[in-house]
Amino acid sequence: MAAAVEDELFSERFLVRRPLLQAIAGNGDAKVAPPVLLIDEVDRADDEFEAFLLEILSDYAVTVPELGTFRADTPPVVVLTSNRTRDVHDALKRRCLYHWVEHPDFEREVAIVRLRAPEVGERLARQVAAAVQAMRAMGLYKPPGVAETIDWAQALAALGRTDLDESTIEVTLGTVLKYREDAERVGAGGLGPLVAEAVARGV
After folding, report:
1. Cα distance between residue 27 and residue 106, in whole Å
2. Any idea what the Cα angle at residue 124 is, between residues 118 and 126, rounded to 5°?
3. Which terminus of the chain, N or C, has fewer Cβ atoms within 10 Å?
4. What's the rounded mean pLDDT across residues 25-32?
5. Residue 98 lies in a domain
6. Do the Cβ atoms of 134 and 162 come closer than 8 Å?
7. 62 lies in which domain range?
């Protein structure tokens, strides 16, 4: 009786299919386009998860000890992203094709800010994007990404600002720069030139 109950519990009926298993198991229809599996910031995962990924990327299979191995009829398209906070294992690297994504150019970054933060005016969006791009050229420890550009623009809009000025940058710099050393480097160069460049490109 106990064995029967245990067999019932360890059945697919009680299996919760998380994204990894969903991507492998699919729907069994070969005519449907393969699923796309996105694993964001894989460099933040632990060694055990990397080892688990190796099975998926090598055999396109997931093993559930109580149920067996699920294999993909149609291998998923797997996209891994990394910010290089640490190196991933060589075995995982060998199974990947690499593409380095640069920061967007000025006009594209402005368009992204306007799309993601529609409450931010065009002029302010252009000034913020220009200021962020200038900061990226300063050799900072952690140059701001597009997410920081959006956060900064939203913070400024929430404060009712429509233009950048030195005092505004000084009190909101922590929105876009996450390290004290970076903020000190930007401040040491003087905020005046940063504002001038931002205003000139924001026209």
Report:
1. 42
2. 95
3. N
4. 63
5. no
6. no
7. 2-93
